[in-house]
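TODO from last week: model Response regulatory domain-containing protein.
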Amino acid sequence: MSTQTTKILVFSHRPEVRETIITAVGRRPAPDLQRVDYVEAGTIADVLYEADNGTVDLLILDGEAQPTGGMGLSRQLKDEITNCPPIVVAVRRKDDRWLATWSQADAVLVHPLDPLAAAETVAEVLRGSAVPVVKG
């Protein structure tokens, strides 16, 4: 039995938002994927460190994070990091999905997070789905 895991970074300045995202996605988003280990990041410096060092397989960024939101951070990462890991942005309003598209995110989740939709979205991105996924 393989002990490999997928490493997902979850960024928000608010610990309760990180917890909500982790709970919604779960420890195994789909039966055909590896178990997930989470890295929680509360600052942009933490995100940049992990992304620059290539230590994570996927990033989930809070679009409402302060002082810099996940959408701006997503665009920065996609523009500056060669072979940037896939990024999922969580937004509060469905109307903000267009901004997530601008951010070059690979997928978008809309709060309140539906655990089935969140896990499915993350699974699709981890499998390398080429089509941007919007759930919510």
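Done. DSSP finds five helices and six strands in the chain.
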